[in-house]
């Protein structure tokens, strides 16, 4: 056997071994596919395709060697050999496609579909809660949290769908993409709607707050007027009671005692005190609403013998005020002696 024929035979043996390895891998996966875990199925999917690639490469090398042995003329390769190479390619592609569909279907039905639909359900649930929220100034913050949570869940749904879209059947892939698109559209519409509701609620609250402030201001004004009227009535009642009260005996005596002549060393000091008392009385009468000119006022001094006040003589303003002498026993004896002499 020549060297070229040995090389062709060796390549054919390599192709045969690759085909056997692929067959064993496919049979193993087909038997265990329903019991494998998610990670195992993904790993076996890669291993099967790697085995199929080895068969395809070995078959291509075998064909190239046949062409080289035929003096680089592809037409010189027999129909039988060409049919064998094409048959190997077809069988390999068919087996890879079959086992790939089995693995994909198992991965999607047992793992992928559940995860994707769970993400869809979570996003739908949060959307319904946000949609049912009645927007006002209190609940708007809670609604914003729901909306942010919805955006996060939609993003997670996209990531899950991106992970599993390669394993999903064509119809399931289209359905999930449509669900994601509708969620995005509904979320944006809900956001605009709730913002409009919040602006409306905020405007109503502002009007209510303004009305409440006006009501409080009016109530305070009415209360102030009532308090003023009550204080005015109380003051009038006090003045009326004061005016109706008889002249206090003790108050009159106190004023009389204040201007006793023996309390002063000179007439000027007495006049000063009398003037001060008059001014105080005028101010008091003015506050009570009575004119000072209407007051019955005159300066008096207490007569100890008679026990009652005696009017002062003269004019206080001109300084000619005279204080009558007290009719004491000593003064009476002096007056009697003067009468005898006369």
Mean pLDDT rating: 77
Shape: rod-shaped
Number of helices: 8
Strand content: under 5%
Helix content: over 70%
Largest sheet: 2 strands, antiparallel
- Can you count the beta strands? 2
Order of helices and strands: HHHHHHHEEH
Radius of gyration: 62 Å
Distance between the termini: 201 Å
Strand order of the largest sheet: 1-2
Low-confidence stretches: 315-321
Structural class: mainly alpha
Keywords: Coiled coil
Coiled coil: 140-200
Q: Secondary structure elements and their pairing?
A:
Layout: H1 3-32, H2 38-69, H3 79-132, H4 140-164, H5 170-244, H6 249-258, H7 267-287, E1 300-303, E2 308-311, H8 329-341
Antiparallel strand pairs: 1-2
Helix pairs in contact: 1-2, 1-3, 2-3, 3-4, 3-5, 4-5
Quick take:
Residues 140-200 form a coiled coil. With 342 residues, the chain is mostly helical.
Describe the structure.
Keywords: Coiled coil. Residues 140-200 form a coiled coil. The chain is an all-alpha fold. Among the domains are: 3-133; 250-341, no CATH class. It contains 8 helices and 2 strands. It has helices at 3-32, 38-69, 79-132, 140-164, 170-244, 249-258, 267-287, 329-341; strands at 300-303, 308-311. The protein has a two-stranded antiparallel sheet. Strand 1 and strand 2 (308-311) form a beta hairpin. Helix 2 (38-69) runs antiparallel to helix 3. The protein is rod-shaped, with a radius of gyration of 62 Å.
Question: Can you give keywords for this protein?
Answer:
two-stranded antiparallel sheet; mainly alpha; 8 helices; coiled coil; 342 residues
């Amino acid at each position: 056997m020549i060297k070229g024929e040995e090389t062709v035979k060796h390549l054919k043996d390599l192709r045969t071994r690759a085909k056997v390895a692929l067959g064993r891998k496919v049979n193993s996966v087909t038997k265990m596919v329903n019991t494998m875990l998610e990670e195992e199925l993904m790993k076996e999917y890669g291993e099967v395709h790697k085995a199929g690639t080895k068969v395809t490469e070995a078959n291509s090398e075998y064909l190239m060697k046949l062409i080289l042995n035929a003096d680089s003329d592809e037409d010189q390769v027999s129909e039988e050999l060409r049919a064998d190479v094409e048959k190997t390619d077809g069988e390999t592609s068919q087996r890879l496609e079959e086992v790939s569909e089995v693995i994909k279907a198992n991965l999607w039905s047992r793992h992928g579909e559940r995860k994707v639909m769970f993400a869809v359900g979570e996003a739908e649930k949060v959307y319904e809660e946000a949609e049912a929220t009645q927007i006002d100034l209190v609940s708007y913050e809670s609604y914003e949290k729901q909306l942010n949570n919805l955006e996060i869940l939609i993003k997670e749904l996209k990531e899950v769908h991106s992970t599993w879209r390669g394993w999903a059947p064509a119809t399931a892939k289209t359905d999930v993409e449509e669900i994601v698109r509708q969620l995005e559209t509904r979320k944006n519409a809900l956001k605009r709607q709730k913002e409009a509701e919040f602006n409306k609620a905020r405007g109503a609250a502002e009007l209510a707050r303004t009305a409440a402030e006006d009501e409080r201001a009016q109530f305070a004004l009415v209360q102030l007027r009532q308090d003023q009227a009550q204080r005015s009535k109380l003051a009038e009642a006090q003045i009326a009671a004061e005016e109706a009260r008889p002249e206090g005996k003790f108050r009159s005596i106190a004023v009389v005692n204040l201007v006793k002549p023996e309390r002063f060393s000179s007439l000027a000091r007495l006049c000063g005190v009398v003037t001060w008392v008059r001014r105080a009385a005028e101010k008091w009468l003015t506050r009570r609403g009575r004119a000072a000119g209407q007051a019955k006022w005159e300066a008096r001094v207490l007569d100890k013998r008679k026990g009652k006040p005696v009017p002062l003589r003269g004019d206080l303003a001109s300084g000619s005020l005279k204080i009558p002498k007290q009719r004491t026993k000593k003064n009476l004896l002096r007056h009697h002696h003067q009468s005898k002499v006369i």
